[in-house]
Structure formats: structure tokens, C-alpha cells
């Protein structure tokens, strides 16, 4: 069982930056691939970025490529999402996701990001 707690959301002007954090419980964090998803009002949840268990590989949605960076610190059981050059269309609830062995998966409770124009 893994508990994920996101933080770092808030209100920012277009062009600004935010860094989201997702802290995970447990001693096997380095066995989980981690990802960020987001869900805007009235829309389906969508993939944002993912990072492999040891941070060797990353993948980004086209809509955030070049602006967002996912990273992780396995010593701190934490995954990050650095968001730069934010746009109003980035406004959403951002969710942390963990995928482990046997397709065990876990979601965080989400953190709100609002980008004003």
C-alpha cells in the first residue's frame, strides 16, 4: 500500500512557474514508476508526464513538452513536477500516480493549479 500526498499547487499568473511535489509513504518507492495526470473542469483526466522507477526515462504529453519537467528523489520518496511558462489552459487539478509490480496503482488526492490570464 502506498499513500501519495501532493502539494505545491496554487494560483499563478500566465508565464509563471510552480513546482508540485508528491510525497509517498512506504519503503519501496524506488520500485514504482511515477506519473502526473491532470483534470480540468468538465474534461477527462489526462496524462501529463511520467518517470521510470530510477528516473532514467521520462515521457511528456505534447502539450507540456519543453515547459514541464518531472523528476524524483528516491531518497526522499518524492516526485516533482516543475512547471514553467504556465498557460491558462494548464489550469486543472493535478494528480500524482504510482504504478508498481503486478499493476498495483495508487492515486493522490490532487492539488489545484490555477493559471490566470
3D structure, described in words:
It is a single chain. This protein has 117 residues and is mainly β. Helices cover 0% and strands 51% of the residues. The strands form two sheets. Strands 2, 4, 5, 6, 9, 10 and 11 form a seven-stranded mixed β-sheet that branches. A four-stranded antiparallel β-sheet has the order 1-3-8-7, with no helix packed on it.
Specify the helix fraction band: under 10%
User: Structural class, from secondary structure content?
Assistant: mainly beta
Shape: globular
Order of helical and strand elements: EEEEEEEEEEE
Per DSSP E runs of 2 or more residues, the count of β-strands stands at: 11
Poorly predicted regions: none
Over the alpha carbons, how many angstroms does the gyration radius reach?
A: 13 Å
Mean pLDDT: 96
Number of separate helices:
0
Summarize the main sheet.
7 strands, mixed
How far the N terminus sits from the C terminus, by CA atoms, comes to 40 Å
Strand content: over 45%
Amino acid at each position: 500500500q502506498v499513500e501519495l500526498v501532493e502539494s505545491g499547487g496554487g494560483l499563478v499568473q500566465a508565464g509563471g512557474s510552480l513546482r508540485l511535489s508528491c510525497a509517498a509513504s512506504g519503503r519501496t518507492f524506488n520500485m514504482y514508476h511515477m506519473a502526473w495526470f491532470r483534470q480540468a473542469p468538465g474534461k477527462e483526466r489526462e496524462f501529463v508526464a511520467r518517470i521510470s522507477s530510477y528516473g532514467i526515462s521520462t515521457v511528456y504529453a505534447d502539450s507540456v513538452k519543453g515547459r514541464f519537467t518531472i523528476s524524483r528523489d528516491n531518497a526522499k520518496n518524492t516526485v516533482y513536477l516543475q512547471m514553467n511558462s504556465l498557460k491558462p489552459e494548464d489550469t486543472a487539478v493535478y494528480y500524482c500516480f504510482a504504478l508498481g509490480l503486478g499493476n498495483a496503482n495508487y492515486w493522490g488526492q490532487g492539488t489545484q493549479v490555477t493559471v490566470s490570464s
